[in-house]
Specification:
By secondary structure, the protein is of the alpha+beta class. The chain contains five helices and seven strands. The protein is elongated and about 65 Å long.
């Protein structure tokens, strides 16, 4: 898998599946779904909640269209271990610095939701959670002017979980990700 194109969807390999009665029961007992079911039933929509629930899960995969490389960039921007490189006296902007990441883990949680509207009015939301952990070994970052300009090859593997209203939809560990010799970030990612 090419890390420059890999998305959370590729890592989790989420494919909508038919949930068991027990899984639907657990999902439907959640606060968000309970609050949504009532107005849908009152509106007497054809199919009501039952007609909508499979459509929501079918569309849920689109919530995972986030590039893995972007998750890494966001984490490095927030991370304290690279914060020192913002100091222009210690790290002059006209010089390039190589920063080895011997062993490094990035954990990121995303909490997207799908708003359900009826006649332009929000009826409720279905909440999802995505947790991803990226294990990096022997990678080097090239930093210049408080920006990550290049990523030099190392080993990278990711694991992830995808939940809907607390119900586990997918969980997976990736195979090692294909890291090219160098990933050039152009203008770079600000630290």
């Amino acid at each position: 898998m090419d890390i420059q194109r890999a998305t959370l969807s590729d890592i989790l390999y989420f494919r909508p599946r038919e949930l068991s009665k027990e899984e639907w029961s657990r999902l439907e007992s959640g606060k968000g779904v309970m609050e949504l079911r009532r107005p849908l039933e009152e509106a007497r929509l054809p199919g009501g909640w039952a007609g909508l629930r499979n459509k929501i899960l079918a569309e849920a995969g689109g919530l995972l269209d986030i590039r893995l490389l972007d998750v890494m960039r966001w984490a490095w921007k927030k991370g304290r271990e690279l914060e020192a490189y913002r100091d222009t006296e210690r790290y002059p902007p006209d010089k390039t610095f190589s920063v080895p990441l011997v062993e490094h883990k990035i954990t990121s949680t995303h909490t997207p939701h799908v708003d359900i509207q009826l006649n332009g009015k929000k009826m409720g939301s279905i909440h999802f959670a995505v947790t991803i952990e990226i294990a990096i070994k022997a990678m080097t970052l090239e930093i210049r002017n408080a920006r990550i300009k290049k990523i030099h090859a190392g080993d990278c593997k990711a694991t992830g979980r995808f939940l809907c209203e607390g119900l586990l939809l997918a969980e997976r560990e990736s195979k090692p990700l294909d890291l090219p010799g160098t990933i050039d970030l152009g203008e770079g990612q600000e630290i």
